[in-house]
Amino acid sequence: MTLDLASLPPLLFVTGTDTGVGKTVTTAALAAALSRATRPRAGSRGRVAVYKPTQTGVLGHEPGDVDEVQRLAGTGAVFEGIRLQAPMAPPPAAVLEGAQLPPLAGHIGRISTLARSYGHVLIEGAGGLLVELDAAGHTLADLAAAFPGRAGTVVVCRSGLGTLNHTQLTLEALARRGLPVAGLVIGSWPKDPDEVELSNLEYLRALPVPFLGKIPAGAPALAPEEFAAGARGWLGNFFGSDVDPALSRSTR
Ligand SMILES: Nc1ncnc2c1ncn2[C@@H]1O[C@H](COP(=O)(O)OP(=O)(O)OP(=O)(O)O)[C@@H](O)[C@H]1O
Ligand SMILES: C[C@H](N)[C@H](N)CCCCCC(=O)O
Ligand SMILES: [Mg+2]
Question: Which listed residue, 61, 176, 184, 236, has the most CB atoms within 10 A of its CB?
Fold first, then answer.
């Protein structure tokens, strides 16, 4: 069974169970897959735009997450809200530079504008779901909640020990806010998964949210054309062939 990527909501908020779990790589894979799997909407400027509201941990001249998405997915329409140097959550990073974070309304305005011009807008948070994005303490969850009926969240998680709890915590926080989950993605799936990872995969697939797929370990090192060619398969697979049948259960 494969997922019809075109049926994903127009706004996809890419969050994760933590920082460094593969949100950017997943965003790139989604951008590459959606660019190829969907038709351009009449009158639109393009199929996919990517927005990173708050980029921390990069110097002014360094490539940020949207540049990595552009490199891997070839998506030209990438946009950044504010970039800050300190590798921290946005509020303390802004304090260190004496910078003012854009308010939530500013991000809502930019996303609304992009949504008028592109078929899908992917919005990548900073770290996990409840990391604050502005001085008023708004989070990516608040941003997603500003677009009822038009937004879905993509939750990126790790493959190894600890991911079951982190994933459940993130899904519970989304459910508590009534935010729909478009899908769960494992950000880096090893070539030779161990027993724990195989068991985790089975568990994650059986959760009551769509399992979108898993990005193979090493994917960021692929040439962009190989990355783009692979992305559709990584994200469309509901039931791949790599689950140990001994670990499979029909229901849970
Ligand atoms: N599938 C993968 N294979 C190999 N390396 C990966 C994979 N996914 C992510 N990485 C690496 O792990 C690191 C963290 O990944 P990534 O930047 O996508 O995380 P993130 O969740 O976007 O973090 P942030 O909160 O900083 O935005 C990067 O160096 C990235 O290249
Ligand atoms: C610097 C890092 N790569 C991200 N941009 C910001 C992650 C903030 C995480 C805050 C936290 O949850 O403790
Ligand atoms: Mg990132």
Answer: 184
1 in a domain, yes or no? Answer: no
**Which CATH number is 136's domain given?**
3.40.50.300
Q: How confident is the model at residue 3 (pLDDT cuts 50, 70, 90)?
A: low
pLDDT digits (tens, 9 = 90+) for 121-149: 999 999 999 999 999 999 999 999 999 99
Give the list of residues 6+ apart from residue 204 with CB closer than 8 angstroms, or none. 157, 163, 164, 167, 184, 186, 211
Residues 6+ apart with CB under 8 A from 70: 50, 76, 78
pTM above 0.90, yes or no: yes
Ligand nearest the Cα of residue 65 is 3
**Residue 124 lies inside a defined structural domain of this protein:** yes
**Whole-complex ipTM:** 0.98
For residue 221, being part of any structural domain is answered with yes
Domain with 140, as residue range(s), is: 9-149+168-237
Instruction: Give Cα separations from 136 to 52, 81, 178 (angstroms).
Output: 18, 16, 21
d(CA 149, CA 98): 37
Euclidean distance between CA atoms 186 and 201, whole angstroms: 9
DSSP symbol at 165: H
Q: Is 191 a catalytic residue?
A: no
Residue 191 falls within a domain, yes or no?
A: yes
Arithmetic mean of pLDDT, 185-197: 98
Query: With a 6 A CB cut-off, is 122 part of the ligand 2 pocket?
Result: no
SS3 content of the chain, % helix, strand, coil (to 5): 40, 25, 40
